[in-house]
Amino acid sequence: MTGTANLVPDAADRRDPVASMGSPARVSSAPLAAAYAECERIARVSSSSFTLAFRLLPVERRGALAALYAYCRMVDDAADESVDPAAALAEWRAELGRLRDGVPTHPVAVALGDAVRRFAIPIAHLDEILTGVEMDVVPRAYETFDELRVYCYHVAAAVGLATLPIFGCRDLRSRAYAEALGIALQLTNILRDVAEDAERGRIYLPREDLQRFGYSERDLHTQVRNEALHALIGFEVERARDFYRVARASIVPRDRRALVAAEGMRLVYQRLLARIAADPDAVFGPRLGVPKHEKALCVLAAWLRGRSVR
Q1: Alpha-carbon distances of 173 from 176, 178, 180, 253, 255, rounded to whole Å
Q2: N or C terminus of the chain: which is more exposed, having fewer CB within 10 Å?
Q3: Is 227 exposed, middle or buried (0-12, 13-18, 19+ CB in 10 A)?
Q4: pLDDT over threshold 70, residue 133
């Protein structure tokens, strides 16, 4: 899967066998402190840009964000790493039901349940995230961008919406920021992972776009590098940039400081998108990324901007 997020683990970060090991029914209940420690461990072993942004938050909010991150990681791995993805996700849906009832059993769900109570995270968003992951169990093509946008909402925008109370946002208008940023991040993920996803039998680029630029699904599978590819990638880059612009324009002054961590993510992913725009053929090469020192500079820039808000 291209990844829930933007604000969630990238496909190449799934290297921890313990984090990926199985379903909630096979893990016993855990004390709260141990549950949070497990979530933080899962976040720590990942090289995701999201974990760097954790450092901009107070400790208690950082723990809640780690719990949300770990949940996304676990359900994402259930879809991509399990022998029977449908069964593994069904168990996670059952675990989400137990979380809703106040009796979760998996350590990640124990911590997430506490975060839900403490920060009033709408469980509906956790359900939406799981629905998005379930959409990947049976690979499908997206005919139009409207269809793809529904998928992006579930696996990315819903994650952003779930983070708003953790960040401490108080204005309902910040939902527009979370939705636009989530879709922008996911579109960036889709471009970066286009070759890897095609190998898994998943093509997220809308068929209407492929047809518009004369680039076929076969071309994608065989990694054809030509002017049609460059035009297609350029078009998708501009679409993602539009969503980044909408996100930035949607920041509500009242919540600007609370969104510092999310803004750090935006700056990092916009740098990644710029790399794709500069060399469209690179989507078929070694996995594109942003160097750690550049990520750190982006997070620092977001922090300084947040501190300048009165």
Answers
A1: 6, 9, 12, 10, 9
A2: C
A3: exposed
A4: yes
